[in-house]
From TrEMBL:
Residues 6-167 form the NadR/Ttd14 AAA domain. It comes from the Bacteria. Pfam families: AAA_28. It comes from Xanthobacter agilis. InterPro entries: NadR/Ttd14_AAA_dom (IPR038727), P-loop_NTPase (IPR027417). This is ATPase.
Length: 180
Protein backbone atom coordinates (compact mmCIF):
# COMPACT_ATOMS: atom_id res chain seq x y z
CA UNK A 1 0.00 0.00 0.00
CA UNK A 2 1.20 3.48 -0.81
CA UNK A 3 0.02 5.38 2.26
CA UNK A 4 1.33 8.68 0.86
CA UNK A 5 -0.72 8.28 -2.37
CA UNK A 6 -3.99 10.14 -1.76
CA UNK A 7 -6.86 9.69 -4.19
CA UNK A 8 -9.26 12.53 -4.93
CA UNK A 9 -12.23 11.03 -6.76
CA UNK A 10 -15.93 11.63 -7.13
CA UNK A 11 -18.18 13.59 -9.40
CA UNK A 12 -16.95 15.12 -12.64
CA UNK A 13 -17.16 18.88 -12.33
CA UNK A 14 -17.10 18.67 -8.53
CA UNK A 15 -13.97 20.82 -8.08
CA UNK A 16 -11.29 18.11 -7.91
CA UNK A 17 -8.83 19.78 -10.28
CA UNK A 18 -9.25 23.14 -8.56
CA UNK A 19 -8.56 21.51 -5.19
CA UNK A 20 -5.49 19.73 -6.56
CA UNK A 21 -4.16 23.01 -7.92
CA UNK A 22 -4.49 24.54 -4.44
CA UNK A 23 -2.61 21.60 -2.93
CA UNK A 24 0.12 22.07 -5.56
CA UNK A 25 0.39 25.77 -4.68
CA UNK A 26 0.86 24.70 -1.06
CA UNK A 27 3.88 22.63 -2.06
CA UNK A 28 2.40 19.14 -2.38
CA UNK A 29 2.95 16.74 -5.25
CA UNK A 30 -0.05 16.46 -7.56
CA UNK A 31 -0.78 14.10 -10.44
CA UNK A 32 -3.12 15.58 -13.04
CA UNK A 33 -6.24 13.67 -14.04
CA UNK A 34 -5.35 11.03 -16.66
CA UNK A 35 -8.60 11.55 -18.56
CA UNK A 36 -7.96 15.18 -19.36
CA UNK A 37 -4.43 14.41 -20.55
CA UNK A 38 -5.72 11.60 -22.76
CA UNK A 39 -8.42 13.81 -24.26
CA UNK A 40 -5.84 16.51 -25.10
CA UNK A 41 -3.56 13.93 -26.75
CA UNK A 42 -6.43 12.34 -28.67
CA UNK A 43 -7.76 15.71 -29.87
CA UNK A 44 -4.32 16.39 -31.34
CA UNK A 45 -4.10 12.88 -32.84
CA UNK A 46 -6.43 10.35 -34.40
CA UNK A 47 -9.23 10.88 -31.83
CA UNK A 48 -9.99 7.14 -31.59
CA UNK A 49 -9.73 6.85 -27.79
CA UNK A 50 -11.93 9.82 -26.88
CA UNK A 51 -14.47 8.89 -24.20
CA UNK A 52 -17.38 9.90 -26.43
CA UNK A 53 -15.97 7.93 -29.40
CA UNK A 54 -14.74 4.70 -27.78
CA UNK A 55 -15.26 4.60 -24.00
CA UNK A 56 -13.52 1.23 -23.63
CA UNK A 57 -10.38 2.40 -25.46
CA UNK A 58 -10.40 5.56 -23.35
CA UNK A 59 -10.69 3.56 -20.10
CA UNK A 60 -7.88 1.21 -21.15
CA UNK A 61 -5.65 4.20 -21.89
CA UNK A 62 -6.59 5.70 -18.52
CA UNK A 63 -5.49 2.49 -16.78
CA UNK A 64 -2.13 2.57 -18.62
CA UNK A 65 -1.57 6.24 -17.79
CA UNK A 66 -2.56 5.74 -14.15
CA UNK A 67 -0.17 2.82 -13.71
CA UNK A 68 2.65 4.90 -15.24
CA UNK A 69 1.74 7.83 -12.96
CA UNK A 70 1.89 5.60 -9.90
CA UNK A 71 5.28 4.24 -10.92
CA UNK A 72 6.69 7.74 -11.46
CA UNK A 73 5.24 8.95 -8.14
CA UNK A 74 7.17 6.30 -6.19
CA UNK A 75 10.22 8.57 -6.41
CA UNK A 76 8.36 11.39 -4.60
CA UNK A 77 8.32 11.95 -0.86
CA UNK A 78 5.47 13.37 1.18
CA UNK A 79 1.84 13.38 0.15
CA UNK A 80 1.13 12.69 -3.51
CA UNK A 81 -2.39 13.69 -4.53
CA UNK A 82 -3.98 11.96 -7.51
CA UNK A 83 -6.77 13.64 -9.48
CA UNK A 84 -8.65 10.40 -10.13
CA UNK A 85 -6.84 7.08 -10.16
CA UNK A 86 -6.82 3.42 -10.96
CA UNK A 87 -10.15 2.71 -9.28
CA UNK A 88 -11.83 5.36 -11.44
CA UNK A 89 -10.33 4.01 -14.68
CA UNK A 90 -10.83 0.31 -13.94
CA UNK A 91 -14.42 0.80 -12.77
CA UNK A 92 -15.16 2.83 -15.92
CA UNK A 93 -13.81 -0.02 -18.06
CA UNK A 94 -15.90 -2.51 -16.10
CA UNK A 95 -19.02 -0.38 -16.54
CA UNK A 96 -18.51 -0.24 -20.31
CA UNK A 97 -17.27 -3.76 -21.03
CA UNK A 98 -17.99 -5.90 -17.99
CA UNK A 99 -14.24 -6.54 -17.75
CA UNK A 100 -13.48 -7.85 -14.26
CA UNK A 101 -9.90 -6.57 -14.02
CA UNK A 102 -10.98 -4.09 -11.34
CA UNK A 103 -10.42 -6.47 -8.42
CA UNK A 104 -6.95 -7.55 -9.51
CA UNK A 105 -5.68 -4.06 -10.34
CA UNK A 106 -7.14 -2.36 -7.30
CA UNK A 107 -5.90 -5.01 -4.89
CA UNK A 108 -2.36 -4.75 -6.25
CA UNK A 109 -2.18 -0.94 -6.36
CA UNK A 110 -3.56 0.62 -3.19
CA UNK A 111 -3.90 4.25 -2.12
CA UNK A 112 -4.09 5.86 1.32
CA UNK A 113 -6.97 4.33 3.29
CA UNK A 114 -8.97 7.58 3.00
CA UNK A 115 -10.30 8.51 -0.41
CA UNK A 116 -11.72 12.00 -0.79
CA UNK A 117 -14.92 12.24 -2.81
CA UNK A 118 -16.04 15.40 -4.57
CA UNK A 119 -19.83 15.30 -4.31
CA UNK A 120 -22.17 16.35 -7.10
CA UNK A 121 -22.20 20.14 -7.15
CA UNK A 122 -24.43 21.41 -9.95
CA UNK A 123 -23.69 25.05 -9.13
CA UNK A 124 -20.07 24.69 -10.29
CA UNK A 125 -20.49 21.98 -12.93
CA UNK A 126 -19.48 23.02 -16.44
CA UNK A 127 -18.71 21.25 -19.68
CA UNK A 128 -15.73 22.19 -21.82
CA UNK A 129 -13.72 20.78 -24.71
CA UNK A 130 -12.34 18.01 -22.50
CA UNK A 131 -15.55 17.32 -20.53
CA UNK A 132 -18.41 17.00 -22.96
CA UNK A 133 -20.75 14.78 -20.95
CA UNK A 134 -23.67 16.25 -19.05
CA UNK A 135 -24.32 16.46 -15.35
CA UNK A 136 -26.55 13.35 -15.39
CA UNK A 137 -23.59 11.25 -16.63
CA UNK A 138 -21.51 12.71 -13.81
CA UNK A 139 -24.13 11.60 -11.28
CA UNK A 140 -24.08 8.05 -12.64
CA UNK A 141 -20.28 8.02 -12.46
CA UNK A 142 -20.36 9.34 -8.88
CA UNK A 143 -22.85 6.69 -7.76
CA UNK A 144 -20.69 3.93 -9.29
CA UNK A 145 -17.55 5.21 -7.54
CA UNK A 146 -19.38 5.76 -4.23
CA UNK A 147 -20.21 2.03 -4.30
CA UNK A 148 -16.94 0.64 -5.70
CA UNK A 149 -14.43 2.56 -3.58
CA UNK A 150 -15.70 1.46 -0.14
CA UNK A 151 -16.06 -2.10 -1.45
CA UNK A 152 -12.26 -2.16 -1.71
CA UNK A 153 -11.87 -1.28 1.95
CA UNK A 154 -11.35 2.45 1.59
CA UNK A 155 -12.91 4.99 3.90
CA UNK A 156 -14.60 7.61 1.73
CA UNK A 157 -14.58 11.17 2.98
CA UNK A 158 -16.92 13.61 1.29
CA UNK A 159 -15.37 16.95 0.50
CA UNK A 160 -17.29 19.94 1.82
CA UNK A 161 -18.94 22.31 -0.64
CA UNK A 162 -16.80 25.21 0.45
CA UNK A 163 -14.03 27.47 -0.80
CA UNK A 164 -11.02 25.81 -2.38
CA UNK A 165 -8.83 26.94 0.51
CA UNK A 166 -11.22 25.45 3.08
CA UNK A 167 -11.36 22.21 1.07
CA UNK A 168 -7.56 21.96 1.02
CA UNK A 169 -7.42 22.61 4.77
CA UNK A 170 -10.06 19.90 5.27
CA UNK A 171 -8.10 17.32 3.25
CA UNK A 172 -4.81 18.03 4.99
CA UNK A 173 -6.39 17.99 8.46
CA UNK A 174 -8.23 14.74 7.66
CA UNK A 175 -4.98 13.05 6.68
CA UNK A 176 -3.39 13.97 9.99
CA UNK A 177 -6.20 12.70 12.22
CA UNK A 178 -7.04 9.17 13.25
CA UNK A 179 -9.98 7.19 11.96
CA UNK A 180 -13.03 9.30 11.27
Amino acid sequence: MDENFVLISGCSGGGKSTLLNELRVRGHHVVEEPGRRIVREEMAGDQRALPWVDPAAFARRAIEVTLADRQAARALSGWVFFDRGLIDAASALGAVTGDAMLETLCAAHRYHRRVFMAPPWPEIYATDGERQHGFESSLTEYQRLATVIPAFGYETVTLPKSSVSARADFVLASLLTGPM
